[in-house]
């Protein structure tokens, strides 16, 4: 069938005269004149819709709808966005590869060619989440940690090697190269892709890079003008297998930056300020696009730092258009001359080159920040959007100490704030008290891709060492950069030895502390914290600080710039006010203040020449294929088109295709009758709470199962590393040590028991029995009793964890009723055949007076019309009935199809095998 918009296929030439073709938005604008005022991010999406308009998945109506976007129109249209590629990190990548392998097994059992199951777009998996900080502070820490990593993860890495040989379009960046987002920014993103022209003699058709990734912080790539965001593994799988990514036409918030940062203020301070502002503007599900004079002055690493934290401010993207600085970044990171030339010529031909000024674009709303108003800041102690000015950290911690939990507080008696306890740890006598920094980590994609803040940390370390300062002995220090390039420029600038002297020795290349892979504290420290209920702290240069994420025993977690991480490691306690009190005592007992050791912007700028050397980037990333490392080379993977599933506590054939038939039978029933309540949750239940990624507790259902299968506690590894085994993951669902099920009665002081517990209501007329959510789920499922969950605002915020939805489904939970949902988790629930329902107006489970012993019926309209009204019928224990109207949060027509098919995976598999 001819392309509906064939007339928009035009030619362009690069600076050296090379020809290319492109689907021209300026040409399309002849028909739809408002395209010229569309946000840049929407125009890039429009190009994909135009180029992929095949009359089936993507229709001319889709092109017209998006070309006619209005800033404040009702959002009812669904965009089918075909992405150029998919990127995975290993925690989410392994279960996704397991699903692909299971699909091939199904194909083989049905007598079909398993090779029909093949990613239709390039897929790159970067192994970055498996390294843990077991060893730290010494020169051989990296080597020791990597040996442990390979020992623990051998079965997973063998499985990845099978995937590399079984699938043509699936590549792996082995452990030890860096964090997925920084590798994506520095290496995987090529700017503009090419495909064959319509006729064999034609110049290639060029199109912009775009992607989805299985990590929320995929948005970091928006810093170089690439449209992309994080999705759950479930949606990524569909994108890999040729399905468009469907999403509702978004509002686009324009964020105007003016002025420039003051002396002594870092990119991290800027991003924490942006996060706080945008959270208040409620940008969940919206695109945010940066424009204005201040935006033009920002370097690409500064832009990427802001883009990275889009999940923390709640936006789908934090987008920066392409300009001269993007071109400079491509040059500095070693892209080829031909690629850079094509990239610049393409964006100029499309009219998409340059950061728009005030009034150039029609946005849904505009937010403004004068960069000159940004001050040194941290965020915490429990959420990334809770910014605190550096001078107020001490007083804020002290006031939160005795406030109730619900107010971000710690609910401890005020008079115990300053008590300290002696303890011997690591052969040294120390005293430990509230506010002590026990983990100080330079980690995470947000900051380690930004040379300005890493050079600042190195310079601060140099000045601190020269002044005679030392890190407090109770602090676990680590440096885990996002790429090997970081170590290279810190070494060349002469700064690494000073960081090492303060304990910030290289511990690994990967997502360590931020994902919960900080490694354990010493048993003595754990014991003194838990026995005395101390509120101790972690300070990290990461992007996530939710409860129990960094370490189960550290209740206060602060996000900070890398230089502030070093400063707090020296100070040793967050109760020390670094704006007025000395950081520590140096040579001769002299007080040393933060101002004495803080680097100037001139000092940082002088060292930037070491950070952007194209040759170094090219040589480093050439090793992915040629010298991946001896540890990786020793990993032996099985060969063949289908996987032979071994008995393993890491990888198991997932149960999502049990009983699969090529012809769809009875569709998933939308109504839920006679359901029991599994949990009543409050606000801000994160995917960490639902599907934890940190350590596995010995007494938890997952720990008990592992021990029963012959795994010693020392070999438990983490939930994230075991995501390829559903038996572990479903037992870990709702098993977070900090989750509070408000069905459980409150204690006399108003506090609630923590941990994944519920009151099982299935014992007839007898009293409810307290047990783990997993055990209760198994008992309910054994009797065919469906269950539902009730929650408050922002249910499912945090990392894009497909297992938060997969685990919910495997526990027999049929519906989640909440005040509001996070974007990715809501779509993942639908993708696994679980109904998301949203309360209307001021309704909540609290206003309805639910206690947990009620029986629930859910009755949506039979057609499952997107966002239609559904009925909730509540039957009280005394037989009284109440009917409540809620909104069905199946948002788009394609989601109706997914839900009716029993989920997105059976839906896609039927299409591939049909």
From TrEMBL:
Residue span(s) of domain Aconitase A/isopropylmalate dehydratase small subunit swivel: 704-840
Pathway(s) served: Organic acid metabolism; propanoate degradation; Carbohydrate metabolism; tricarboxylic acid cycle; isocitrate from oxaloacetate: step 2/2
Enzyme Commission code: 4.2.1.3
Keywords from the UniProt entry: 4Fe-4S, Iron, Iron-sulfur, Lyase, Metal-binding, RNA-binding, Tricarboxylic acid cycle
Cofactor annotation: [4Fe-4S] cluster
Major enzyme class: lyase
GO biological process, one term: tricarboxylic acid cycle
GO MF, one example: metal ion binding
UniProt catalytic activity: (2S,3R)-3-hydroxybutane-1,2,3-tricarboxylate = 2-methyl-cis-aconitate + H2O; citrate = D-threo-isocitrate
Database matches in InterPro entries: AcnA_IRP_Swivel (IPR044137), Acnase/IPM_dHydase_lsu_aba_1/3 (IPR015931), Acoase/IPM_deHydtase_lsu_aba (IPR001030), Aconitase/3IPM_dehydase_swvl (IPR015928), Aconitase/IRP2 (IPR006249), Aconitase_4Fe-4S_BS (IPR018136), Aconitase_4Fe-4S_dom (IPR036008), AconitaseA/IPMdHydase_ssu_swvl (IPR000573)
PROSITE patterns tied to this protein: ACONITASE_1 (PS00450), ACONITASE_2 (PS01244)
Every Aconitase/3-isopropylmalate dehydratase large subunit alpha/beta/alpha domain range: 75-572
Pfam families (alphabetical): Aconitase (PF00330), Aconitase_C (PF00694)
Family: Belongs to the aconitase/IPM isomerase family.
Function: Catalyzes the isomerization of citrate to isocitrate via cis-aconitate.
Quaternary state and interactors: Monomer.
Annotated protein name in UniProt: Aconitate hydratase
Lineage, top ranks: Bacteria, Pseudomonadati, Pseudomonadota, Betaproteobacteria, Burkholderiales
């Amino acid at each position: 069938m001819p392309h509906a918009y064939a007339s928009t296929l035009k030619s362009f030439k690069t600076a050296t005269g090379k020809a290319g073709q492109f689907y021209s938005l300026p040409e399309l604008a002849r028909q739809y004149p408002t395209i010229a005022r569309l946000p840049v991010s929407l125009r890039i999406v429009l190009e994909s819709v135009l180029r992929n308009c095949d009359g089936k998945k993507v229709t001319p109506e889709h092109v017209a709808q998006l070309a006619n976007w209005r800033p404040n129109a009702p959002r009812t249209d669904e965009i089918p966005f075909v992405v150029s590629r998919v990127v995975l990190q290993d925690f989410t990548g392994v279960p996704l590869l397991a699903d692909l392998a299971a699909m091939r097994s199904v194909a083989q059992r049905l007598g079909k060619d398993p090779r029909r199951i093949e990613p239709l777009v390039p897929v790159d998996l970067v192994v970055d989440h498996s390294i843990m900080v077991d060893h730290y502070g010494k020169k051989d820490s990296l080597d020791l940690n990597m040996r442990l990593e390979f020992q623990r993860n051998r079965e997973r890495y063998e499985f990845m090697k099978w995937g590399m040989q079984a699938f043509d379009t699936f590549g792996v960046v082995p452990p030890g190269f860096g964090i997925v987002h920084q590798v994506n920014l520095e290496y995987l993103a090529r700017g503009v892709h090419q495909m064959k022209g319509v006729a064999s003699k034609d110049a290639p058709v060029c199109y912009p890079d775009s992607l989805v990734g299985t990590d929320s912080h995929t948005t970091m790539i928006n810093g170089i003008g690439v449209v992309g965001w994080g999705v759950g593994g479930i949606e990524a799988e569909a994108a890999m297998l040729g399905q468009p990514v469907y999403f509702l036409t978004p509002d686009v918030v324009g964020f105007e930056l003016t002025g420039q940062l003051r002396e002594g203020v870092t990119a991290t301070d800027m991003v924490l300020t942006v996060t706080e502002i945008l959270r208040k503007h409620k940008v969940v599900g919206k695109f945010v696009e940066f424009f204005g004079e201040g935006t033009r002055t920002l370097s690409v690493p500064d832009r990427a730092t802001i883009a990275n934290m889009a999940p923390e401010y709640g936006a789908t993207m934090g987008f920066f258009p392409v300009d001269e600085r993007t071109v400079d970044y491509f040059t500095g990171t070693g892209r080829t001359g031909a690629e850079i030339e094509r990239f610049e010529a393409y964006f100029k031909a499309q009219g998409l080159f340059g950061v728009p000024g005030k009034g150039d674009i029609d946005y849904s709303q505009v937010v403004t920040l004068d960069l000159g108003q940004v001050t040194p800041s941290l965020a915490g102690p429990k959420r990334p959007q809770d910014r605190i000015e550096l001078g107020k950290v001490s007083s804020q911690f002290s006031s939160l100490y005795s406030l109730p939990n619900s107010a971000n507080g710690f609910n401890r008696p005020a008079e115990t704030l300053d008590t300290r306890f002696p303890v011997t740890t690591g052969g040294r006598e120390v005293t430990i008290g509230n506010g002590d920094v026990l983990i100080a980590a330079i980690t995470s994609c947000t900051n380690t891709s930004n040379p300005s803040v890493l050079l600042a940390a190195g310079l601060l370390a140099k000045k601190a060492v020269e002044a005679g300062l030392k890190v407090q002995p109770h602090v676990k220090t680590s440096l885990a950069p996002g790429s090997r390039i970081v170590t290279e420029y810190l070494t060349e600038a002469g700064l690494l030895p000073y960081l090492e002297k303060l304990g910030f020795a290289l511990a690994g290349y990967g997502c360590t502390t931020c994902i919960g892979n900080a490694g354990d504290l010493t048993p003595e420290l754990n014991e003194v914290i838990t026995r005395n209920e101390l509120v101790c702290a972690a300070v990290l240069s990461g992007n996530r600080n939710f409860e129990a994420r960094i370490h189960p025993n550290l209740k206060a977690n602060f996000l900070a710039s890398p230089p502030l991480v070093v400063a707090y490691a020296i100070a040793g306690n967050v109760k020390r006010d670094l704006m007025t009190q000395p950081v520590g005592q140096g040579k001769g007992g002299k007080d040393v203040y933060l101002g004495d050791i803080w680097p100037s912007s001139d000092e940082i700028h002088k060292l930037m020449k070491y950070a952007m050397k194209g040759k170094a980037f090219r040589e480093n990333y050439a090793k992915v294929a040629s010298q991946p490392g001896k540890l990786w080379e020793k990993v032996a993977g099985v060969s063949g088109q289908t996987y032979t599933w071994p008995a393993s506590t890491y990888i198991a054939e997932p149960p999502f295709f049990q009983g699969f038939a090529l012809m769809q039978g009875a569709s998933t029933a939308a109504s839920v009758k006679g359901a029991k309540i599994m949990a009543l949750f409050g606000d801000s239940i994160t995917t960490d709470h639902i599907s934890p990624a940190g350590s596995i507790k010995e007494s938890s259902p997952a720990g008990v199962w592992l021990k029963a299968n012959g795994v010693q506690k020392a070999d438990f590894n983490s939930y994230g590393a075991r995501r390829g085994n559903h038996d572990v993951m479903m037992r870990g669902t709702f098993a977070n040590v900090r989750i509070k099920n408000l069905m459980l009665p409150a204690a006399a002081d108003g506090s609630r028991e923590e941990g994944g517990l519920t009151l099982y209501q299935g014992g007839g007329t007898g009293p409810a029995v307290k047990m783990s959510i997993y055990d209760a789920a198994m008992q309910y499922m054994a009797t065919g009793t469906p269950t539902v969950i009730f929650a408050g605002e922002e249910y499912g915020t945090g990392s894009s964890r497909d297992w938060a939805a997969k685990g919910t489904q495997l526990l027999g939970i049929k519906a989640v009723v909440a005040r509001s949902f996070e974007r990715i988790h809501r779509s993942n629930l639908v993708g696994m055949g679980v109904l998301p329902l949203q309360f209307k107006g001021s309704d909540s489970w609290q206003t309805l007076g639910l206690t947990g012993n009620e029986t629930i019926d859910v009755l949506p309209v039979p057609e499952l019309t997107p966002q239609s009204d559904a009925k909730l019928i509540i039957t009280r224990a005394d037989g009284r009935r109440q009917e409540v109207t809620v909104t069905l949060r199946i948002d788009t027509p394609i989601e109706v199809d997914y839900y009716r098919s029993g989920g997105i995976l059976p839906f896609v598999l039927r299409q591939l095998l049909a």
